[in-house]
Amino acid sequence: MCWRPGVSNKHAGSLTLRVALGFAVLTVFLVASSGVYLYLALKQEMAQRDREELAGKITLFQKAIAFVPDVASLRREPGVLTHFLIGHESLALRVRDEAGRVVVASPASLPHTATQGLPPGLVSLAGSGVDGHAWKGLAAPAALANGERVRLEVWRATHQQLALLEWYRNHLVVAGFAATLVAAALGWLLVRRSLRPLFALTRSAQAIHRHTLSQRLDAGRVPRELQGLVDSFNGVLERLDRAFAQLTDYANDLAHEMRTPLGILLGQTQVALSRERTVAEYQRVLADNAEALEGLARTVNDLLFLAKLENAQNHLSFETLDLDAEAKRVCEFFEMLAEEKNIRLVITGTLRLEADRGALRRLFNNLISNAIRYSPPGGVVQVTMEPSLPGFVVENAPANPLPDDLSAMFDRFYSRGEKGEGHGLGLPIAAAIARLHGGELRAERRGGRLGLVARFGGASASPV
């Protein structure tokens, strides 16, 4: 059954009831099909046996009548044939001459039949007698000793067989009805028993709340058919747990990062208001506060940008770009900052790939500014296009010791400088942009230099 968003599912009904009814319908179909087959098979078998018995009697009468001198003798001594019917109450015999006159006849009320001529061979007969009983028979020609030919008719009363077939049919109906009820009941019990693991999973899932997101459903105690559901649900729990943990860390980092500048702002303001000061002193305090507020504004803006990046996949506008040209534009923007520290910016290689122009420039901006900020004076920041990734690498000689675990550089609010101008969000934003392009951003040690490798996945890349 397909579920459609916005469509009420309150009338979907019980799965147990539907499966039980399905069992019942299937049982009705199977029992009815089997009953009809068995009924028809029995009816055909009885008809076949009747025909074989009647054909045997016809053969017997043909052999017996061959010793009768003539029709008159047969009329006088019918026992020559009728004694073969002793003990066979359901059988009857009728013999006609070539003119259609009855020569020998059983006392039973047989159906009327056509009497024109003799049958060419075995001919099937059927009809109802005067008493309403149904009869079936066979007719065949026979020859007397003098060569006269007669018509033999051997009949069997079928009302008893019809009664037996009716009894058999009624019992099939009763048995089918009983089997349907039993199948429905057993189906209901079987489904209820089979759904116990699902009920247990439901109870386990209901016991999970925001304080126990680390709890997982036990996949080892469910049937194979539910393994996929359990694994998917555990995957959802894993992502929720990770998201809540990330949100908690995010809030803690934000509070920790803002506590210091807010404390400084509050302290400076309180000190400035503790006594009357000159205009120059107030201006100095306001200038310091404005600088701190600008840092807070940059932090908040970057945090908002980072949060938007998590759901920005559908808002990116991809186009084919020259990465070396975009890197050159960003380097021109930071040229004055690099000259202040006597740092040389070098771009090598060419590469074209599909990317979002704004996000790509933000990526270059964060990586190049980070490399300039944490490079020693007189160093070189090199941006190398590498089509084999596809992507690029930003290298610089680090001014400060690198952490043992380079992945820590991508944590929010991580800073490598004691009093750096950065607030520790540049690299996390750059990593998020790389992920939005189907790739990754990683840090590598390259012979005493730090390399930030930006790889773009799922994009068609080619050297220019």
Give an overview in words.
- With 464 residues, this protein is an alpha+beta fold.
- It folds into three domains: 14-194, Beta-Lactamase (2-Layer Sandwich), CATH 3.30.450; 225-309, Helix Hairpins; 316-455, Heat Shock Protein 90 (2-Layer Sandwich).
- It is built from eleven helices and twelve strands.
- The strands form three sheets. Strands 2-1-5-4-3 form a five-stranded antiparallel β-sheet. It has a five-stranded mixed β-sheet with strand order 7-9-10-12-11. Strands 6-8 form a two-stranded antiparallel ribbon.
- The protein starts with 14 loop residues before the first helix and ends in a 9-residue tail after the last strand.
Count of alpha and pi helical runs: 11
- Average pLDDT, rounded to a whole number, is 80
**Which stretches are poorly predicted, pLDDT < 50 over at least 5 residues?**
1-11
Q: What's the CATH topology label of the largest domain?
A: Beta-Lactamase
How many separate domains make up the residues? 3
Overall number of strands = 12
